[in-house]
Fold each of these.
Amino acid sequence: MKQLKGSEKQVAWAEDLRKDFLEKAEEYKSLLNKKNSEKTQGEKNHESSLQTQLGLQERGVSFEEKRENDNKLREKLGLVVGKEERKALPKEQRRAENKKLREAKKENEIEKVNQKIEQALNQDSAKAWIESRPR
């Protein structure tokens, strides 16, 4: 972790912000690794809140764009892409493909969190932490 630069007061504040960010990132990753069926509603809400606080929530992405992104990921994974084609799959195969898609999306999300953590560890400006804090 890089030493922060700035006034004594800025550095102290930024260190608190960085510590809080890193704790939230780890908490978010642990929630991602928990099966949805095992999460309480409170944990699901907290996960969504952490996603927003960490700057990971995609804003302004339409349902169609999300579906298109899912289909690109399905294609990359070698899964059946079309909605009608997926419906035609045997139930067990459809479930297995949906599970692979969920796992890949989770891995992508964890990778995004890890990138944010890496950026946080390499940020040396106290002022940048203060200016980018959640308000």
Amino acid sequence: MGRKPMPEALRNIQRHTPVLRTLGDVEYFAQEMYRKGARDATEKAASGRLLMAIWLLHDKFGFGNKRLSRFIDEMNVLADEMNAKLLDEKGIIKALKSECDLEITM
């Protein structure tokens, strides 16, 4: 009786599971998983807020496909500018206050 072949799925799991040999490895792995979870949760929350804004613009303000597409494109441009540190939340809040007399607190 020889050894039975391991199913392919189990081999894939073992191939992609890190080997944790020291307490430092375990701590590092836990921190990385926490960071990944935090990033995923942040991205999901931001996507949910964008989806809510798109729905409200359509449902309450009558935006159709063309204006919603322009809104999404402009949101992507704004996100790129913020990621490149060309613009920040404080600057947007200040502009909304001076141009629209709209008080935003965060």
Amino acid sequence: MYGLKSRQRGSSAVSWLFYLLIGGLLLSFAVKVVPFYMDDHSVQQVVSSLTDRPGSATASVTQVRTWINKGLQLNLIKLDRNEVKVTRENGVVAVDIDYERRIHFFHNVDLVLTFEHNWKAGTQ
């Protein structure tokens, strides 16, 4: 028993390579996904800023769309026109932003991130 204990001194080289592989995959995942969540946070700020705008409850659909486009442009975020829907329902302006982003992770593995934001004048 005494001789066996002196030979056990921590992780082997194979286990260290495994740890490095897992760490590399996690780092790669973070580097590819975090920027999209940062952009989504900016989109959320643009949507929530509509509540603080004077006259947002009585603004037209065109005016609200202009405010959203300016906020997105200021944050360097590109959304297609069909991903941002601004409508008037029962006299209340409603904003629905639904979009998804696809990220190539490795080989034939892709990640799909979906985001959704809703806003109605006078409800937030």
Amino acid sequence: MKTIIFVRDMKTEDQADRIRVALEDTRVEYKVALESGAVVIEGSNDLVYAAKTAIREAGFTIQ
């Protein structure tokens, strides 16, 4: 199942890299779409929760 998480504060490539680094520490399969300000997560609700937690801990706000 694919889930799209919109990240309010992701505007630059540096910010997208910070999210990538945060998600690398999880077992989440993801794709960062900077142009749309979104992160696409592939997996169960538990993986989506882990991704959201990692993104928030990296200092970003999820819409």
